[in-house]
Write a structure and sequence with these properties.
By secondary structure, the protein is mostly beta strands. The chain is built from 6 helices and 24 strands.
Amino acid sequence: MIIPAALAVLLTAPAPCDACAQAEAHGFARLIEGRYQIVLPPTSQPSNREADLFGEAPPKRSAAPPREADLFNAPPPPPPPPQPSPLKAGGRLDIQHDVYLSEDTDWGEQPIDPRYHLRLYADARPSPTARAYTQARLTFDPSEAMSWGGTTTLEQAWLKLNTSRAFITLGVQPIRWGTGRIWNPTDALNPTRRDPLLSTDLRGGISAARIEAPFQLKSLSGALQLITITEGAQRLKAVGGAARLSLAWGAYELILSAMGRGEDLILAAEASGGVGPLEVYGEGSVSWGVERRFTRGGFTPEQLWDALGGSRAASPVAQPIEGASAKALAGVEWPTTLGGDRLHLGAEYLYNGAGDDDEVLYLWRLLQGDPALYLGRHYAGIYALAVDPGPLEHTQLLLTALANLSDGSGLARLTVVYAYEVLRVEPYVGGRFGAEGGELRLKTRIPALGDAPPTQIGPLRAEAGIWLRADF
């Protein structure tokens, strides 16, 4: 062919050259400085049909360096942790020792109150939408010699179902209402009141069926609860019901409740919110047909104490309160810091429309099951809580002072709470002050029983004790 022949002589052939001219015409040569030079065309690449259709593949990464396990035959990494078991079990042991010091009583005759509380629970979660929980408490009193001295209480036994719109809880369940730190006048579903001087609520649950439906309306959130109460009911007419509406907007909350059983009715409201650096809260209730009041009918305290020994001639008479009876609580708390430590200061006032001004009836009412600190009509309390003060860690100091303004008696108590891991220790010491014979400085006269003469126990002066708790 002409073009290859021309290429062969390009390096030696001077211009002009017919073969070189043909090579130049085809683009294989160029005349430079009187001589033809070879011009090589770009190397053609083979066509990649897949790349033309889908684009170029990303460049391959270099192989990863060998792992230590590959070089030294190290064991493989551990497997992922197993999933939690759907069933959990555990418990709590509370050891309580209290001593009460009274005036006009020999040191060896001062009463003590040792108790042991053992709680056992089982918590099952068979599915993400179902949970079953049961908890029983065994209380043992070692002061009752030569007898078992123990009581068993089923505190909780409930089944909870979660749906897309509501939570359904059936069985014996804890229901606690109220915003107060010391008193809760709206907590009317429970047959007993919480002891404000104890950090542990020893009350169990109540038998009920509850449906709770939360909702959200822009910045307003809330929940509606409907409750059927079967606690203490043996017939259909004794079954009670309650409704509770909770509304929350920012730092403010309003709760409206209604409870009824037979002809008894209770309407209640709770509110809380922040006002500057303070947290202000309150609650109140109005009831019809629920409360009762005792009258002693002119009997002397000695006659009433003798009635406790079996004589019914001087027994007080309980009469239902006609019309409405009101309870109200107002409280304020100031969370602040002192030297870098957290400090909470608070105060509360309680008005109890069903309370008595006659302290002679207090002992009788206590023996009839009426709750302490709800016997008088007017109460006031203050408290101060310090969290990890100074060099102390895992420690809280709680100072509480309560007064029955109706009879002028009061108490003050300092409690130290040390909690570390599963252990909790709570020693306390307290004193009583104010009028003798009042609710908080109660005098007791044990009537004559058989050949034993009547015993007079003077008013309380001081108290001390320790609580030990261990979770397992």
